[in-house]
Amino acid sequence: MELVTPGIGLIFWQLVTFIIVLFLLSKFAWKPIMNALHERETSIENALSAAEKAKLEMQGLKAENEKLLAEARMERDKILKEASDAGNALIETAKQKANEEGSRMIAQARESIENEKRAAITEVKNMAAVLSVDIAERILRKELSNPQAQQELAKDYIKEVTLN
Amino acid sequence: MKKLFILLFSFLTISANAVAAEGGEFKPGDMITHHIADDYTWHFADGVVLYLPVILIDNGQPQVFSSSNFYNENHELVPYNGYVLDHGHIYRADASGQPAADQSSLLDFSITKNVASLFISVALLLVVFFTIAGSYAKGKGRAPKGIQSFFEPIIIFIRDEIAKANIGPKYERYMPYLLTIFFFIWFNNLLGLMPGGANLTGNIAVTLVLATMTLLITVFSGNKSYWSHIFATPGVPTWLAPIMIPVELIGILTKPFSLMVRLFANITAGHIIILSLFSLIFIFESIFVAPLSVAFAIFMFFLELFVALLQAYIFTLLSAMYFGGAVEEHDHVGDHGHGDGAH
C-alpha cells in the first residue's frame, strides 16, 4: 500500500518541475529544434527538386544541341551538294562553249581558205590568159616578121575565108 | 515478464519465510521496499549518505531543517523539534517520541531522494537539449553532429511515427509535450537503473502527475465531435444514455489511469526483480548462488534498459493517441458502431 500511495510532496515538486521544464524546453529547445528540422527538410527537398529540374533541363539542352548539330550537318551536306552541282554545271557550260567556239573557228577558217583558193585560182586563170595572149602576140610577131610568112598567112586566111 | 516476476517472487517469499523461520536477519522484502521507496537521505554506499532537506508545512507554518537531525551519531532514529521519522514518513511526535494521534494539516514538501533525483534529471534534460538546440542554431541547414545526431532520429521518430501518425494535421501543438514526456520518462528510467539512483518513474506520484497532464491536455483539446461521442454516442439509442454517459466519462479517466499504473508498475517491477535476484544470494547465504543470480540480474538489467525506452515510447504513443482521439474530425456518415469505444 505504501508503494501505491502518492505523496503530496513529490506530486507538488513533480508538477512544478515538470511544468517549468515543459515550458523551458518548449521555448528554448523544441521550438528551435523543430524549426531547424523543418527548415532543413524543406531545403533538402528544394535542393532535390532543383537538381531534378536541372537534370531535365540538361536533357532538354542536350536534345536541342543534337537537333542543332543534325540540322547543321544537313545544311552542310546541302551546301556541298549545291556547290558541286554548280561546279559541274559550270564545267559543262564551259565545255559546251569551247566546243562551239572551236567549231565556229574551224568553219571560218575553212571558208577563208576556200575564198583564198578561189581568188588564187582566178588569179592563175587571169595570169594564164595574159600569158597566153602575150605568147600568142610574140608568136604572131615572130611569124609575121618576114614578108613571105605574112603572105602565107594572108593566103591562109583568104583560103579559109573562101572556103567558108 | 509478469509470469517470470510472479514465479520469482513466489520462490522468493517461500525462501524468505524459510530464512525467517530459522531466525535469519536478512529480510528481502524490507530491503527491496526500502530501495524502491522514497527516502529523506540519499544512501549511495555504506557511509556515503547525503542528508536531504526536510520541508514541512505545519498548520501553514513552514519548517525547514536537514534530515540528519533525525539521526544520532549511531544512525539511530531520534525525534527532532517535535517531529518523528517513522517507517519513511515524518509525523508530529507526542511526548514519548512516538507519532502523535493528530496528524492533520501537516504537509510534507521535503526534497526527498526522488525530488533530488528529479532535479538532477531535469538539469540533465535542460543541458542536453539546450546544447542540441544550440548546435541546430550553429549549424543551420547542415548535417547533425555529435549528440545532436544521436537525438535527431529519436525526435524525428516521435514527430513522424508518434505525433503525425496518431494526431493528424494538428500534431504540431502537441510536439513539445510529447517530446518532453518521452525524454523525461526515458532519462528518469535510465537514471533509476544507475547504481544509487532513485526509483522516480516507479513512483506513483510522478506517474500520477504525468498521466494527469495527459488527461488535462486531452480534455481541453477535445473538440465538438469528441464530446458528442461521449454525451451522445452516435448509433446508440437515446434511452441508453444514462448508462453510456457514465461509461464514457469513466473511460476518460481509465485511459490516464492505465498510463499511470503501467509506467509505475513496469519500472517498479523491474527494480524488484533485479533486487530479488541479488537477495537470493543472501537468502541462501551461499556464494555459489551468486553466479546464477548475477547472470539473471545482468539479463534483467538489459531487459530493463529496453523497458526504459519501451515504457517512454508507450506512454508517449498512448498520450498521442488520446490527443488524436480528442482532435479527430469524425465523419458522422457511416460512423455508427465504432466511436470512442475503439480506444
TrEMBL record, chain A:
Residues 44-82 form a coiled coil. The chain crosses the membrane at residues 6-25. Its main location: membrane. It is found in: Cell membrane; Endomembrane system. The keyword ATP-binding does not apply. It is a single-pass membrane protein. It comes from the Bacteria. This is ATP synthase subunit b. It comes from Pontibacter virosus.
Automatic annotation (TrEMBL), chain B:
Keywords: ATP synthesis, Cell membrane, CF(0), Hydrogen ion transport, Ion transport, Membrane, Signal, Transmembrane, Transmembrane helix, Transport. The keyword Coiled coil does not apply. Coiled coil: none annotated. It is a multi-pass membrane protein. The chain crosses the membrane at residues 115-137, 174-194, 200-220, 263-284, 290-315. It comes from the Bacteria. It is found in: Cell membrane; Membrane. Residues 1-20 form the signal peptide. InterPro entries: ATP_synth_F0_asu (IPR000568), ATP_synth_F0_asu_bact/mt (IPR045083), F0_ATP_A_sf (IPR035908). Gene3D superfamilies: ATP synthase, F0 complex, subunit A (1.20.120.220). One of its GO terms (cellular component) is proton-transporting ATP synthase complex. GO terms for molecular function: proton-transporting ATP synthase activity, rotational mechanism. SUPFAM superfamilies: F1F0 ATP synthase subunit A (SSF81336). Key component of the proton channel; it plays a direct role in the translocation of protons across the membrane. Belongs to the ATPase A chain family. This is ATP synthase subunit a. The gene is atpB.
